[in-house]
Amino acid sequence: MNPTLFIKFVSVSFQKQVTYRFDCFVGIVNGFLYVFIFTSLWKALYSQFDTTMHNGYTLTAIVTYAVMVMAVRISFTMDDSIIYRKVMDGSIAMELVRPTSFFFMNLAENVGNSLFHMMARTVPIALISVFLFDIYIPFEVQRFLVFIVSFIAGYILVSMMNFIAGLLAFWFIEIFPFLLFKYAFYTFFSGGIVPIDFFPEFLKALVKLLPFQYMLYYPTTILIGRASLAEAQSIIAAQLIWIVIMGVICSLMWGAGKKKLIIQGG
Amino acid sequence: MESIKIYLTLFTTSMKARMEYKASFLFYIFAILTFYAGQFGLLFILLNRFHEIKGWSVGEMVFLYSLQAFAFGFTNLIFSQLVNFDKMIVDGEFDRVLVRPLSPLGQVIFSKFEVSTAAHLIIGSTALYFGSRYGNIDWTLYKVILFPVIITGGVLIAGGIRLMVTAVAFWTLRNRSLVHTVIFSSKEFINYPVNIYNVGMQFFLTFIFPIAFINFYPAHFFLDRSGAGLLHPLLEMGTPIVGIIVITASIFSWKAGVNHYQSTGS
After folding, report:
1. Measuring CA to CA, how many Å separate B37 from each of A249, B44, B59, B169, B185?
2. Would you say residue B266 lies in a domain?
């Protein structure tokens, strides 16, 4: 797909979001609510012990993790039922005749959506949090650049996960239960709430086999300085491998889905 | 009396409609159970590491969760249609409700049966069993009698809040994000004992947005715990009274909304 067209789609999807200003304000409150709950939880847990370090995290480190992982997660906000709705109302047929790649169209739509959430929600929530909580992030230009790369790789993985979940609409009339599964796995295994370092050994072994940790946990550890720059390189390499694996799954499913496609009266 | 019969017919019809697809019904329940299993899983990981949360042991936390699961389970059963109420207004479907010789609120409430209730009741009962066992609850006759009273109070609080935020749609039309924040995200607050939050938030959750009465305060009574945080012994028994206050206020706001209502004309 050519880049100008991609950017065009991104900006259309971005502008669609701008129309809902009230939703945006509520979205800030909603995101901050989670930040508040989890920072309070960690503070309460840490206050029970004299030891200041748990599983490699000081209180400042864990509060920073809680805030930043939520910031990353909110920046990754996308509408995971776009494909489902297109199948339901039959407009998916239009996508099939377009000369552009459906995957990249979908990615562009997600990016527009997420960029909006990043500017309208992540930025204010991060700013408020910096004032309210004890947060420490190392300021190194190189680290920040590496983080951006890992962040984008994580974003592509989340987008692929949603693409796969959305394609299930080609086979099933109701995909809400699948989205719920996806949400549960994503929240749990990506370190979205509790960092993987706190998981018991048997779960850590399981997490290693799954792509979820590369979506939120690893990009966040790079940002907050838990992963060294050398480690960051192997993290990004692993992310790229997962992008290839999930990319193959996406294209196989898309190929099979096109043949299977049943449109409800559309 | 005649109207009660009509409500019941509405209710059973919608229930039958949902049960039509048995496989999808069971799958949906399973998905919801997985979602909550993930939440419990994270809680167990934390408790495994930190043993307790501000003086609440695993068993007591599980009991806290059971009160919440029961209250929200029944709230979903009764007040589920309210989640998508703004759509009824925007699509003009509410006009149809108004021309019928039945209470608009009754019609809206009985027009949908939410299957997630079954999942909540499974979770609530399981949590109640393990919570009683590991939280060492001494089930006296008095407690057994008061248990359903407390749950009912919790339903009135959660349902009343739902009705109030739904009524906002009469003024703003679309209020989906607000509804989701107030109904679903705010639930996260009481996944943990309320005394982990700062005093300001405890005050808010007790007197302004009183969801602490759904599980935190009454749990003290069942677990024979003495007070912590903002707790006054009187608050332990406050749930039914607060429930009545909230539901009364919410019915007034709904009625004000209906009076204010002007069709969108669609």
Report:
1. 27, 10, 16, 33, 17
2. no
- Please report whether residue B132 resides in a domain: yes
Domain that holds residue B104: 2-260
Q: Closest to A194 (Cβ–Cβ): which among B30, B46, B176?
A: B46
Q: Which domain holds residue A171?
A: 3-260
For residue B171, what pLDDT is reported? 82
| Phi, psi of B56, rounded to the nearest 5 degrees | -105, 120
- Our CA-based measurement puts residue A217 at a distance from the nearest CA of chain B, in whole angstroms, of 15
**Domain-located, residue B37:** yes
The reply to whether A51 falls in a domain is yes
User: How far A43 CA sits from the closest chain B CA (Å)?
Assistant: 8
CA proximity to A114, closest of A16, A243, A254 = A16
Give me the number of domains chain B comprises: 1
Residue type, A62: I
Within an 8 Å CB–CB cutoff, is residue B26 touching chain A? no
Confidence of residue A103 (pLDDT cuts 50, 70, 90): confident
Model pLDDT, residue B214: 95
What pLDDT does A224 receive? 94
Of A174, A188, A198, nearest to B24 by CB-CB distance is A174
pLDDT, tens only, B27-62: 888 888 999 899 889 999 999 999 999 889 999 999
What pLDDT, on the 0 to 100 scale, is given for residue A266? 44
Residues of A within 8 A of B180 (CB-CB) are 30
Q: Which residues of A touch B35 (CB under 8 A)?
A: 180-181, 183-184
- Residue A266, domain member (yes or no): no
Rounded CA separation B237/A35 (Å) = 31
Prediction ipTM score: 0.87
- Of residues B151 and B99, more confidently modeled: B151
Rounded CA separation B100/A116 (Å): 43
Question: Which residues on B lie below 8 Å from A176 (Cβ)?
Answer: 28, 31
| DSSP tally for chain A: helices H, then strands E | 12, 2
Domain assignment present for residue B183? The answer is yes
CB contact under 8 A, B198 and A40: yes
> What confidence tens digit (pLDDT) does each residue in B149-162 have?
999 999 999 999 98
> pTM, whole model, 2 decimals?
0.89
Counted domains in chain A: 1
Q: How does residue B190 score in pLDDT terms, banded at 50, 70 and 90?
A: very high
Chain B within 8 Å of A18 (Cβ-Cβ)? no
B46 with A43: Cβ contact below 8 A: no
- Residue B214's nearest CA partner among B232, B195, B196, B187 is B187
Contacts of B33 (CB under 8 A, 6+ apart): B119, B122, B123
Question: Looking at per-residue confidence, does A24 or A132 come out higher?
Answer: A132
Q: Which of A180, A193, A197 to mutate to test the interface with B (most CBs of B within 10 A)?
A: A180
